[in-house]
Amino acid sequence: MPARILSVSRRTDIPAAYPRWFMECTRRGSVTFPNAHTGALANCSLRPTDVLAFVFWTRNPAPLLPYLDELDGRYGPRHLMHVTVTGLPAAWELRAPDPDTVFRALEALARRYGDDHLTWRFDPILITREHPVDEVIARFRALGQRMKGLVTRCMTSFYDPYARAQGNLAAAGLGELDGRYLSGNSDPAAVALRRELIGGLAAAAQALGIRLSVCCEDDLVGPGLADRGACIDAGLILSVLAGRGILDGGPKTGLAPTRAQCGCSAAIDIGTYDSCPHGCVYCYANRSPASALAHFHAWGKGGFPSDPIAPTAEEA
Question: I want to staple 183 with a disulfide (CB 3.0 to 4.6 A). Which of 81, 160, 267, 289 is the partner?
């Protein structure tokens, strides 16, 4: 069986909230996780020979940093990382990490691995009366100034109105979203408005040496707009690893799109839904911010119910 890409994780923030569980799984050489659709448990090898790369997703890399020597000693630096930083206020992201903590961690990662290690996720874009287009572009530009020199890639997309997220947004009482800026709105006037906004972000990113990409938003791709990107991009992964002297080539991995216009490569996601503590009210991965926080309090030390770990001496 060829080595595989592991996604860690679209479903929850493992680097920030469950790093010890993840490292215990790597020490054991396997991980058990629920199927996202059926709930049936699946097992995946984490033996170094079976892992092409890890793709981390997080809002805060800092809790993972103490484990990097061990992780790299076991696998080599076979990992890239998506880091979400939106600059939205706390009403939208109830327990988002302190920005200074996040940027110190990003600086440490860039020093260790280079600026091709990280992808900044400015995601999702939400347009409301309190957050009009001009505010979004200004916020992006301000964050981009801090990202300059740390990243060369930024991934963005417009908010996709999943039913679960819509319910959480309504409960939060944050005002009505401008429907013209919702992903999937195919009205030509709405597409034109989204293209105009993306053009503004792309110009701001280019001035900072950052390439803007979108996933599942082909209407926003083109000259002066965004590139067509993929959140899990086997070509990018192989190129970065080759640049680190790890691979001269690598196995081909086919596309495994998660939705329409998705360009992602095949990967195995080892996370568990409804377990991220950050409390982002727009997130599709949690039933509610409260239920996810309760699960984090229950699982944060011992790991997910599908694959628990022994407590430390201090926790026992």
Answer: 160
